């Protein structure tokens, strides 16, 4: 049964604008908000989590976390566990306690990524954005992703989580044609969540753009489960 009084907090992947969730939000019968970026130039992981929590007026909410949003979600669970009804990871990185986004990656990525971030910053080349994030999208959407991509502070990638005691409902939506997080990696992250709710969707890394209707349906099924 759908509880329309539920509120959803959407956490976007790195560099992605809030509009990526627009079509999904329109299809869901819930109040929702997309977490804003913190205003500090060198914002920490905690800054991201606090900005997300402050964006929700309701007492409790369900987190839908995409990509690096899984790391932010972990910090939200540490800071405000009493406010979280559930967590749905969408092709998201799920760190262990003490891990960062980078250190949660498999070898050799966790060794190469810190150097790449230091030398090249956090904005990938346009070709990499199109090849990874843009996979499965039409040209218009891919162009908009490239144009609107925002550089994030390195701290978002490097700050380590500190664990949490939250043990509520959790689920994972696996994107099976993903070039950013391969399906096998997602399945490993899904295994770290306490919940046993899991579905797959045949899209690339941005299912909310490639198939917003089915993404919304999956979110609704998770909330109703």
UniProtKB/TrEMBL annotation:
Keyword Hydrolase recorded: yes
Pfam family, one: Abhydrolase_6
Signal peptide span: none
Keywords: Hydrolase
Classification via InterPro entries: AB_hydrolase_1, AB_hydrolase_fold, Sec-Metab_Biosynth_Hydrolase
Domain AB hydrolase-1: 8-217
Ranges in a coiled coil: none
The organism's place on the tree of life at top rank: Bacteria
Molecular function via GO: hydrolase activity
PANTHER family in UniProt: AB HYDROLASE-1 DOMAIN-CONTAINING PROTEIN-RELATED, ESTERASE_LIPASE_THIOESTERASE DOMAIN-CONTAINING PROTEIN
Protein name stated in the entry: Alpha/beta hydrolase
The species this protein was found in: Microbacterium luteolum
Lineage of the species this protein comes from: Bacteria, Bacillati, Actinomycetota, Actinomycetes, Micrococcales
């Amino acid at each position: 049964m759908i509880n329309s009084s539920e509120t959803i907090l959407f956490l976007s992947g790195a560099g992605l604008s809030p509009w990526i969730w627009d079509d999904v939000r329109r299809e869901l019968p819930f109040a929702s908000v997309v977490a804003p970026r913190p205003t500090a130039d060198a914002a920490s992981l905690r800054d991201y989590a606090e900005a997300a929590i402050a964006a929700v007026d309701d007492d409790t909410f369900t987190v839908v976390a995409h990509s690096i949003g899984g790391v932010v979600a972990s910090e939200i669970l540490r800071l405000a566990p009493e406010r979280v009804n559930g967590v749905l990871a969408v092709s998201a990185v799920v760190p262990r306690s003490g891990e960062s986004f980078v250190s949660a990656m498999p070898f050799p990525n966790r060794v190469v990524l810190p150097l790449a971030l230091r030398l090249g910053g956090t904005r990938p080349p346009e070709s990499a954005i199109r090849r990874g994030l843009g996979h499965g999208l039409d040209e218009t959407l891919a162009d908009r992703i490239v144009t609107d991509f925002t550089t994030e502070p390195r701290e978002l990638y490097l700050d380590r989580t500190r664990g949490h005691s939250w043990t509520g409902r959790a689920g994972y939506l696996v994107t099976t044609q993903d070039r950013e997080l391969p399906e096998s990696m997602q399945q490993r992250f899904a295994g770290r969540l306490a919940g046993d709710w899991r579905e797959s969707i045949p899209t690339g890394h941005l299912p909310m753009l490639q198939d917003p209707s089915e993404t919304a349906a999956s979110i609704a099924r998770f909330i109703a489960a």
